[in-house]
């Protein structure tokens, strides 16, 4: 058993107030030595209370429950009286814990500081993974990141110590891998300030990505609101084998559901095919559920999860999960809002892209499709790792492909990078020889961090604007996301297919049928990959990278310099005036896909995530202007001149002119970054009017006092002109379910009235009136 994993104190104490104790053997007690305090006893689910809540709700609804319903409803603040209607009512929930990555934790902790509360009310952790730029290799890149980001790391470390938040230092690994290894377990409800938090669903947990303001609510001990999710069932039959991997399940599902098909729903996998997928493979599938807009994804508890819990030092949790196993699987006869069936025996390896993660192709066909569409066939770089695919099994399968090439004298034709998901994975694959194989074939092992997956990549092999293809095992492939080059065609697939294509150097390579040529002229075919699900020798924890907060943080100082360009204390947003919003300018009418990457780019901008004014200089600089198809080029209707979006917004704000953004479908898809909502609010935005929203972004806008509104008739989008003035009417009688209206004044003197819908409930309307959810929280404290 790994020596670092569980604290004796955590195991001896109750699963929650009133739950029964666990026995801890003397042998285990002797082994639990390192970072003992990283686990808090209160972070356990009280299975008895969980069971009681589920029983109450099942009796009330008088029907069988899906697994996701059990876990969600099992965390209701008031299971006796909560109105429950999938897709309609808002649930008040009590999540078990909060996790924040360093890029979003800055703003979350700044907001928590603004709340005036002395300490977090639920177990919470900060994970340093986003601010490490991939340049030359793990050791040097990590050292450079520690130096460049010292101010931010010190802020997060001291804020964590003061307010009772655990701190995982830079180099510890990617937030979602750390959660899987340490904090996720069957039945837990966790919220994380990153859109790929659903990764924990691979361990039977409900893990949901949120904005920082939502995290502040939970850390403050306030019930957290979530619209009651619909449930999409994915029934798996057959068995995974050969070149087909868990990644292919979600690549196929993404092709079926598209980037918005899961919006407002939890995707629940079930069926006999589940047992052929490893626990970390299930996590991969849940992780990329973010790319279909799903609230989260989850798998039922099974022996694969039990084995993973035991291997990561949590055998006692596995024993309890076995005891409550009926609670951790769907009820027989439960009903889903939609059902998709996949036969794993028939599923073939897939690769999705470019520019969107739902453009699915079988690997056997992508070469021909690329030729037809003029996509570059040469693979310039293959990249494996990321929070989606950096498990021991992933690295083992990739290494098995690489070793076959090495045995024949071949190395990668493309550049090849390897990003371990955690310090534990890095240390273990180094010990077991995988790192050496991947290095020998041409790979460079990067830091245990997000790196190129989120644009933290100092790429130098192509010039900006140069058309090229990369193949990754990541989750997203939006335009310019990985390397800031809009001409890069990024494709996502499994680590083993990435490795094979990096060796072959081309998209037009199907390892199931095609041959490689060795230096001696011998033609050979790669055998299907194989890799152990978990290490035979247990995991090597590597370096200890966890800092537990002291019992009392009152004496800890958290300093933010007024001269800092990285951190800035927050000023409260202004309250609603009490009147309708009159004559708002249209800042920009956005054309087509507009993700949170378009609204608030990552990459080099990550360094400003703790400084609202500075990061607002990236607001909507990636969005396409419908007026001229330009990027970051809009007309200032006060001066008649064209300028960048943030510059025009700042000029409007300085001139006392408020504005709106008009957008297309699924506006704000992608990352959970709340900066995409904070920036418009900071620069004078009052409303975002679109055809439809992605879930997290819509909530983030509400939290910051911005009105997210949708056209009742989507074709009304076409009626808006760039020089219109828009007045939003009906705010004096603002109420749930009651539409607002937009009076649109055209420059030719004509005007028309459009109906605008919203999804605000009564609590959220109070946020709007107070100016933000944080303002409202402070009002309620007095």
Automatic annotation (TrEMBL):
<comment type="function">
    <text>Catalyzes the isomerization of citrate to isocitrate via cis-aconitate.</text>
</comment>
<comment type="pathway">
    <text>Carbohydrate metabolism; tricarboxylic acid cycle; isocitrate from oxaloacetate: step 2/2.</text>
</comment>
<feature type="domain" description="Aconitase A/isopropylmalate dehydratase small subunit swivel">
    <location>
        <begin position="585"/>
        <end position="713"/>
    </location>
</feature>
<keyword id="KW-0004">4Fe-4S</keyword>
<comment type="similarity">
    <text>Belongs to the aconitase/IPM isomerase family.</text>
</comment>
<dbReference type="Pfam" id="PF00694">
    <property type="entry name" value="Aconitase_C"/>
</dbReference>
<protein>
    <recommendedName>
        <fullName>Aconitate hydratase, mitochondrial</fullName>
        <ecNumber>4.2.1.3</ecNumber>
    </recommendedName>
</protein>
<dbReference type="GO" id="GO:0046872">
    <property type="term" value="F:metal ion binding"/>
</dbReference>
<keyword id="KW-0411">Iron-sulfur</keyword>
<dbReference type="InterPro" id="IPR000573">
    <property type="entry name" value="AconitaseA/IPMdHydase_ssu_swvl"/>
</dbReference>
<keyword id="KW-0496">Mitochondrion</keyword>
<dbReference type="GO" id="GO:0005829">
    <property type="term" value="C:cytosol"/>
</dbReference>
<dbReference type="InterPro" id="IPR015928">
    <property type="entry name" value="Aconitase/3IPM_dehydase_swvl"/>
</dbReference>
<dbReference type="InterPro" id="IPR015931">
    <property type="entry name" value="Acnase/IPM_dHydase_lsu_aba_1/3"/>
</dbReference>
<dbReference type="InterPro" id="IPR036008">
    <property type="entry name" value="Aconitase_4Fe-4S_dom"/>
</dbReference>
<dbReference type="GO" id="GO:0051539">
    <property type="term" value="F:4 iron, 4 sulfur cluster binding"/>
</dbReference>
<keyword id="KW-0408">Iron</keyword>
<feature type="region of interest" description="Disordered">
    <location>
        <begin position="518"/>
        <end position="551"/>
    </location>
</feature>
<dbReference type="GO" id="GO:0003994">
    <property type="term" value="F:aconitate hydratase activity"/>
</dbReference>
<dbReference type="InterPro" id="IPR001030">
    <property type="entry name" value="Acoase/IPM_deHydtase_lsu_aba"/>
</dbReference>
<keyword id="KW-0809">Transit peptide</keyword>
<dbReference type="InterPro" id="IPR006248">
    <property type="entry name" value="Aconitase_mito-like"/>
</dbReference>
<dbReference type="Pfam" id="PF00330">
    <property type="entry name" value="Aconitase"/>
</dbReference>
<dbReference type="InterPro" id="IPR018136">
    <property type="entry name" value="Aconitase_4Fe-4S_BS"/>
</dbReference>
<dbReference type="GO" id="GO:0006099">
    <property type="term" value="P:tricarboxylic acid cycle"/>
</dbReference>
<feature type="domain" description="Aconitase/3-isopropylmalate dehydratase large subunit alpha/beta/alpha">
    <location>
        <begin position="69"/>
        <end position="505"/>
    </location>
</feature>
<keyword id="KW-0816">Tricarboxylic acid cycle</keyword>
<keyword id="KW-0479">Metal-binding</keyword>
<dbReference type="InterPro" id="IPR050926">
    <property type="entry name" value="Aconitase/IPM_isomerase"/>
</dbReference>
<keyword id="KW-0456">Lyase</keyword>
<dbReference type="InterPro" id="IPR015932">
    <property type="entry name" value="Aconitase_dom2"/>
</dbReference>
<dbReference type="GO" id="GO:0005739">
    <property type="term" value="C:mitochondrion"/>
</dbReference>
